[in-house]
Automatic annotation (TrEMBL), chain A:
It comes from Python bivittatus (Burmese python). HAMAP family: MOC2B. Substrate binds at H109, R110, K125, K132, K133, E134. Coiled coil: none annotated. This is Molybdopterin synthase catalytic subunit. SUPFAM superfamilies: Molybdopterin synthase subunit MoaE. This protein is produced by a bicistronic gene which also produces the large subunit (MOCS2A). The gene is LOC103048154. One of its GO terms (cellular component) is molybdopterin synthase complex. The lineage of its organism: Eukaryota, Metazoa, Chordata, Craniata, Vertebrata.
From TrEMBL, chain B:
Acts as a sulfur carrier required for molybdopterin biosynthesis. Component of the molybdopterin synthase complex that catalyzes the conversion of precursor Z into molybdopterin by mediating the incorporation of 2 sulfur atoms into precursor Z to generate a dithiolene group. In the complex, serves as sulfur donor by being thiocarboxylated (-COSH) at its C-terminus by MOCS3. After interaction with MOCS2B, the sulfur is then transferred to precursor Z to form molybdopterin. Pfam families: ThiS. InterPro entries: Beta-grasp_dom_sf (IPR012675), MOCS2A (IPR044672), MOCS2A_euk (IPR028887), Mopterin_synth/thiamin_S_b (IPR016155), ThiS/MoaD-like (IPR003749). Pathway: Cofactor biosynthesis; molybdopterin biosynthesis. It is found in: Cytoplasm, Cytosol. It comes from Python bivittatus. This is Molybdopterin synthase sulfur carrier subunit. C-terminal thiocarboxylation occurs in 2 steps, it is first acyl-adenylated (-COAMP) via the hesA/moeB/thiF part of MOCS3, then thiocarboxylated (-COSH) via the rhodanese domain of MOCS3. Keywords: Cytoplasm, Molybdenum cofactor biosynthesis, Nucleotide-binding, Phosphoprotein. SUPFAM superfamilies: MoaD/ThiS. Belongs to the MoaD family. MOCS2A subfamily. Its main location: cytoplasm. GO terms for biological process: Mo-molybdopterin cofactor biosynthetic process.
Amino acid sequence: MSENEDKPKDAIGLKYEKLSLEEVAALVISPCCGAASFFVGTTRNNSEGRKVIQLEYEAYTAMAEAEMKKICTDIRLKWPSVKHIAIHHRLGLVPISEASVIVAISSPHRADSLKALQYCINTLKATVPIWKKEIYEEESSWKENKECFWFKGEK
Amino acid sequence: MGGAGPLRAIPCSDTVKVTVLYFARSAELAGLRTETISVPQQITSLQLWREIVKRHSRLADIEDQVVFAICQEYVPLGDQQFILHTGDEVAIIPPLSGG
């Protein structure tokens, strides 16, 4: 496959089933790229000293997809060498240690995919309308990302 | 009284039906995820919020924590004025926690 045949792709997904790192890798690996960078966000069994049993995610699906596409557009402006971008986010109940989000980005050389990867996950936390509820033994609470632009808690 | 006075601005009394979407904590407080409400066509985001709180008083608790997404664009509660259309989607957006 020549470089021209592997056209840049943005793959965005909101999924109720378990996320697959392998599937996401297949979406971004490219014969013309020497780098594919990955971020996997996993659910943690503790938060601020409390035991977390599981997590539950919900999204404003249509807008979340639109905001993720905007992030892809921004990445391509900032790092034009980026080839493929994949962002998969899980919704619904997520047991501890499973992936809630996987971001993968390929580029010819590693510097751009690594920088774009960090930008992608930070911006996702700030702008994509998705919410996480931590479920403890007897109650639950909605979390707030410090990156969210109207967040008023301690940064 | 009467006679040819200057034309008075007539307050815009047209109403439109918009779909309100509630998410996360706002859905728990409102007790529902979506509804259609009638609101003045021309309205500020803060007035729109007050209309919604009239229907679901428990939402007042999170007034300083939410923004709107009007037709999928983020809008803080404030004096910015909007012209809404029937069928527009107005979402209540509590602080985000994706990732």
